[in-house]
Amino acid sequence: MMENRINSGNRLRIIHGYHNGTELRNMIRKEYGKHPKVLRIESGLNQGMTDLVLRELYTGP
Q1: Contact by Cβ (8 Å): 50, 14
Q2: In what order do the strands lie in the sheet with 49-54?
């Protein structure tokens, strides 16, 4: 699994793969679908990636 920030800073792109990544994709959607810091989950044209759109930018400790 690989996470990185996207242009706006309030997204996490998770690359889970397409053929063998479906269980990881399903786990991400289940675990983070109702997380209070996640505004929504987006699937792009590439089925091997999932974007988590955060409610606010997390800057860390």
Answers
A1: yes
A2: 2-5, 11-15, 49-54, 38-43
